[in-house]
Specification:
Number of helices: 6
Radius of gyration: 23 Å
Strand order of the largest sheet: 1-2-3-4
Oligomer: single chain
Largest sheet: 4 strands, antiparallel
Number of strands: 4
Length: about 150
């Protein structure tokens, strides 16, 4: 079997009919969309070939893409401001009323005082005693601008 690099290079030599055949092969038998240009169809086929060999997107990336697609569907617009991505092992430190609190970022949430949490918000509430945005409490998000008067 030819190497991935050879297969990708070979896409440029295929006729439109051959590209449609490759499309069906790599897109579970689906027909290639009408009007999809040669360049874009070749890129989509190349993506599928590479994904099959090297693996797909990380689950966090897939979740973010789904969130953006849902946002676009619901509002007709998307907010592309990037939230801060915390890597597992990161330690968040916050001082509150003279006490220093530590939160460990885990692969699937956060660890605070030997307990697991899915988000920072309940941790912020536990520390402060009131409802507070966890990301804002730990300095990961700025306070939104006050409305113009």
């Amino acid at each position: 079997m030819a190497s991935l690099a050879d297969q990708l290079a070979g896409l440029a030599t295929l006729s439109q009919a051959q590209l449609r055949t490759e499309w069906r092969k790599h897109h579970r038998g689906q027909q290639m969309p009408i009007g999809l240009g040669r360049d874009l169809s070749s890129r989509a086929i190349a993506w599928q070939m590479q994904e099959r060999i090297r693996g797909g997107l990380a689950s966090g990336t897939v979740r973010e893409l789904r969130r953006l697609a849902r946002q676009l569907h619901e509002s007709g617009d998307i907010d592309l401001t990037k939230d801060i991505q915390l890597k597992p092992g990161t330690r968040l430190v916050r001082q509150w009323h003279g006490t220093i609190y530590h939160v460990l970022v885990m692969e699937d949430g956060f660890q605070f005082q030997d307990r697991h949490y899915r988000s920072l918000t309940p941790i912020a509430k536990e520390i402060t005693g009131v409802a507070w945005s966890g990301p804002r409490f730990f300095g990961l998000k700025e306070k939104p601008d006050a409305p113009a008067k």
